Structure formats: C-alpha cells, structure tokens
Amino acid sequence: MPASARDTPGVILPPPLIYLGGLVLGYVLHRLQPLPIHHPRITFPVGLAFVLAGIFINVAGIREFRRASTSFIPTQPSTALLQSGPFAWTRNPLYLAMTLVYIGVSLLLQSLWPIICLVPVLVLMHFGVIRREERYLERIFGDAYRAYAARVRRWF
Fold first, then answer.
1. pLDDT of residue 6
2. CA 62, CA 85: separation in Å to the nearest integer?
3. pTM for this predicted structure
4. What is the number of alpha carbons within 13 Å of residue 114 lying toward its C-beta?
5. In which domain, by residue range, is 67 found?
6. Residues whose CB is less than 8 angstroms from the CB of residue 148 and which lie 6 or more positions away in sequence, other chains included
7. What is the count of structural domains for the chain?
C-alpha cells in the first residue's frame, strides 16, 4: 500500500545534516584542542578507501530508489519497499554510506575528535531517524516490511 502525499516518517533532521553537524563539531573541537592521529601512511589510504566505499554504496542505493520511482529523501513519502541492490544486505545502505564517508573524512583529517563525535551522531540517527523510518515502513508496508526486516540486518 503506497503512502499518501503527507505520510512521512517524521525524522528529526535530514540525515546528511546530522552527519555534517558531527563532522563540523569534531573539526571545531580539533581546532580548539587537537587530538591528532599521527599515522598518515595509514590514515590516508584507509580514509580514502572508506570515502570511496561510501560513495559507491550511496550511488548504488540511490540508483535503487530511482529504479523503484520512490524518493530517498526521508521527509518524502515512500511508495516502494526496496529489497534489491545494497538493500539486499543492509536496510540502511545510504546511512551506512554516510557513516563510511564520515569515518573516511575523519581519517583524512587525521583527527580523533570527529570519530568521537560519531557516537552521538549514530545515537541520533538510530532514535531520531532509523527507528522512526522503521515504524513508518512497517505501518505502510506491513507484513512485507516485517519479513524484510527479519531477513536483512539494519546496518550490515
């Protein structure tokens, strides 16, 4: 059953803003009280790999949204339950992608502060976005969503 035009999950903030807020806070804290990671030979290639992996997963996830003709913006109604592509192995590939990019950028900045700030970011994502979306998807897709959630993990 597709959602009505006004029926949305009611997330507290757009997820990219939550992640960006954590990164900015981490960067500001690093500028005020540096907490560096002193291993550029490790942090650069690993950070770059995380960023690239996140971008790849994000592109694949958005492609699935477009194929299903539904919005990937959580303030818009969902009209399809995605279960293919990256959605076959994680229920939240776009959030996983943002987390990977966030960790990668933190490593490229060679700072522990953004990684420390990732903890409240993930708590906010869990309770302010993901749990709300799960309740919403269960409400509009019912047994189909419950079966999907039982089969596919939330993150990975």
1. 59
2. 10
3. 0.93
4. 26
5. 21-30+39-74+81-151
6. 81, 83, 91, 141
7. 1
- 71: phi > 0 → left, psi -120 to 50 → alpha, else beta; which? beta
Q: What is the pLDDT of residue 156?
A: 76
Residues 130 and 6 sit within 8 Å (Cβ to Cβ): no
Asked if residue 60 belongs to a domain, the reply is: yes
CA distance 142 to 131: 15
116 occurs within a structural domain? yes
Q: Is residue 135 part of a domain?
A: yes
Residue 75's pLDDT is 87
Residue 89 within any structural domain of the chain: yes
- What pLDDT digit, counting tens, does each position of 37-96 carry? 989 999 999 999 999 999 999 999 999 999 999 999 988 899 999 999 999 999 999 999
Among candidates 141, 102, 127, 114, which has minimal Cα distance to 13?
A: 127
pLDDT above 50 (res 3): no
One DSSP character per residue, 58-75 reads: HHHHHHHHHHTT----TT
The closest of 98, 90, 66 to 79, measured between CA atoms, is 66
Residue 63 in tokens = 């492609």
Cβ neighbors of 115 (< 8 A, separation 6 or more) are 26, 103, 106
CB 130 within 8 Å of CB 95: yes
